[in-house]
UniProtKB/TrEMBL annotation, chain A:
<keyword id="KW-0472">Membrane</keyword>
<comment type="similarity">
    <text>Belongs to the YIP1 family.</text>
</comment>
<feature type="transmembrane region" description="Helical">
    <location>
        <begin position="80"/>
        <end position="99"/>
    </location>
</feature>
<dbReference type="InterPro" id="IPR045231">
    <property type="entry name" value="Yip1/4-like"/>
</dbReference>
<feature type="region of interest" description="Disordered">
    <location>
        <begin position="1"/>
        <end position="43"/>
    </location>
</feature>
<dbReference type="GO" id="GO:0005802">
    <property type="term" value="C:trans-Golgi network"/>
</dbReference>
<dbReference type="GO" id="GO:0006888">
    <property type="term" value="P:endoplasmic reticulum to Golgi vesicle-mediated transport"/>
</dbReference>
<keyword id="KW-1133">Transmembrane helix</keyword>
<feature type="transmembrane region" description="Helical">
    <location>
        <begin position="172"/>
        <end position="194"/>
    </location>
</feature>
TrEMBL record, chain B:
<feature type="compositionally biased region" description="Acidic residues">
    <location>
        <begin position="49"/>
        <end position="59"/>
    </location>
</feature>
<feature type="region of interest" description="Disordered">
    <location>
        <begin position="43"/>
        <end position="63"/>
    </location>
</feature>
<comment type="similarity">
    <text>Belongs to the YIP1 family.</text>
</comment>
<feature type="transmembrane region" description="Helical">
    <location>
        <begin position="190"/>
        <end position="208"/>
    </location>
</feature>
<dbReference type="InterPro" id="IPR006977">
    <property type="entry name" value="Yip1_dom"/>
</dbReference>
<dbReference type="InterPro" id="IPR039765">
    <property type="entry name" value="Yip5/YIPF1/YIPF2"/>
</dbReference>
<feature type="transmembrane region" description="Helical">
    <location>
        <begin position="115"/>
        <end position="136"/>
    </location>
</feature>
<dbReference type="Pfam" id="PF04893">
    <property type="entry name" value="Yip1"/>
</dbReference>
<protein>
    <recommendedName>
        <fullName>Protein YIPF</fullName>
    </recommendedName>
</protein>
Amino acid sequence: MAAADESSRPFAGLSDVSISGDIPVEGDISVPVGPSRRDDEFSTLDEPVKETILRDLRAVGNKFIHVLYPKRSSALLRDWDLWGPLLLCVTLALLLQGGAAKGDDQSGPQFAEVFVIIWFGSIIITLNSKLLGGTISFFQSLCVLGYCIMPLTVAMATCRIVLLVPNSLVSFVVRLVVVTASFGWSTFASTAFLADSQPPNRKALVVYPVFLFYFVIAWMILTFTPTQ
Amino acid sequence: MASPNDLQFQEFEEAAELLSADPGASTLSMSASIASSAAAGEEVKLDLSEDEDTQEESSELLGSQKPTASFLTFEYYQSFFDVDTVQVLDRVKGSVMPLPGRNFIKHYLRSNPDLYGPFWICATLVFSVAISGNLSTFLSERGNPDYHYRPQFHRVTIAAVVIFLYAWLVPIGLWSFLTWRQGAERQVGGYSFLETVCVYGYSLFIYIPTSVLWIIPSEWLHWTLVLVAMAISGSVLVLTFWPVVRDDTKLTAVATVGTIIVLHALLAVGCKMYFFQTAARLPVSEATNNYNASTTGVH
């Protein structure tokens, strides 16, 4: 109450002043124009749904291309998203289904086990790299690790096609070569993105868990046996 | 003001007291911890211009507790991962080659225990045991036409539960037991909880190459490897814990060390028996299929 009194005192004398309508008030009010994205954000309500979906799909596809040709670019890191990893994880888990008889506890990983291994494993690796002093953010790292599963998913699809041919030794050798190559590609691609964010005397400590992660996924792909 | 000086003198008295109680190791660990914390750019523990946390810190200055932040912050946990590649490799080497004079904790850890080693060694061990077990079952069944290869993925879950429980529960039990036995007077001689977990984690490293070698389907090789691995990692543990218990009564000392060895042996033998069964001892569900194989598969 006292504060209100004090603040109103400077203007106490003006309570009976009125401004007539014909006093010109002029000046310049300049508002700094923000990035044109602001206009786009408001206008995305009007764009067709196809456009909205395609924008995200194009971003995801762009990142897939960056994984295919891993150069030290920052596109994956700057605009991270988790759509790609989710798509890849679901695809991989679906392709790993149809193994030895369901309900038999000697069979391959269940759908939930694949999900848990991929997401839980990525989270643990990210926590590990942050605890060791890395400068990468949590979701950026999840994004990179998820997108770099792509070569392994492609290998899984190839393996399922190869398994349609009944010859066992040749198909096994082909699958082994394909899975090994894609495992190397995944590890190389993700270290190309992640290694820069670590202090140099701890790089190996961060790369090893990534190696283990992709090795386990490659093992799950290689040992997939369809129902007899 | 007089209070910073008082704190400083108080701390030196305590330091002198502790030094006289245990001359050898404490100076080493102090200089190492100062060197390591200076290198890492952290606050040196002797910095008394900080807040009231330093009062607690100075009382365990020459103990082995490192963290300087509240356990709700991220920096607290980062202090457990303050190791370089070279240090981790060094510790792994020390766990594989136990020399009689070298206490693993005093020589290699030097009051900088880490959680990186124990966690990733356990994770690697889980997968190496499960994968090698799967491969060894496959190789020992090669001659059997009725055998269909199965990935046996459920073994990963079982291995993970067993190994992580061992690597965490046994150090908890051992550390609580040792701390209880020492009582209040000899708190310098004991190891912190983190150091106990650390030494147990690194001692499991030898089982990783052992489990890979267990793929070779030969029974006598399996048992030889079990004995060698148990000897090496058991001696790492015994060399670490014997100096702490030997001042206790004879019975307690022998019982403690004996329990450590027995539990370690149980882990090794249990893993071997469950995951690496040769053709004669496969689980019951496949026994009927492989009954014929048991006579032809075992050499």
